[in-house]
Design a protein that fits this description.
Elements (H helix, E strand, L loop, with lengths): L4 H58 L3 H43 L1
Length: about 110
Amino acid sequence: MLNISPAVVWVIALSQLLTFGLTVWNLVSSGSRANAKRLDEHAAMLGRHSERIQGVEQAMRDMPSREDFHQLDKQMTELRGAMAVLTERLKPMAAITDRMQELLLERGK
């Protein structure tokens, strides 16, 4: 007669050990999965921050510098001087047109 009761006991014991081992494995690996998920979230956040920083750096490079403003100030000063000279040169022309207008008004009367 074949007695399988010791084999059944060993199969049940191995099954229980396997279940215990899988439970321990799940407990141990669940932390690493959660950490991996958090690391992925942090990597995505760092990527977004990197893009924003690059945008700010590009905007800073495109902004005029102190020297650019100094050059602009010098050019505006030169332009102001040229406009003053032009204004002085146009004053005699304005006087001539005023006199011509008065002459035409007198002749029209």
